[in-house]
Write the structure tokens for this entry.
Amino acid sequence: MLDMQKVTELRNLTGAGIVDCKKALEENGGDVAKAAEALRKKGIVKAGGKAERQTKEGLVHAYIHSNNKVGAMVEIQCETDFVARTEQFKDFVHDVAMQVAASNPLYVGPEQVPAEVIEKEKELAMAEFDGSGKPHEMLMKIAEGKLSKYYSDVCLLKQTFVKDEDKTVEEVLKETIAKTGENIVIKRFVRFGME
């Protein structure tokens, strides 16, 4: 028999339904931490299936840092006005605006990086090892690794999340999709800074 206190604790921790919490606890021997991780993984898998759903609602939010020298404005969409008004969605939108102000990304995701920029980054990576005698396949893998690093610097979704360095913004987005049950899309952002 499951302890209802553990079910409540897991529910508060993950935002998952009671039935899902009970099942996760049963499958993980009553261990709340393991059950939370299992629910998180399950939720992220579910989030991937929502990516095609249309987003017509959402919020535009502005964040100004306490020094009044940097700020950001973001547009983030969801499927319904109901979710757009929830604290969970508002908190996510605020966190993304804060991320933009702090990390100064250039693009939302890698698919927005112009092809000529990608080619230039690959060329620079290849040129760095030109004449090293390394095989072409190895140089291509090095270039891909450097390109991945470039994305983590300039693409919002690939950046390390400022509030939890163990996650990327993309992972936090997927967790929010899983918790709200709706597709969420970061449409655009702009950053202002006196630097």
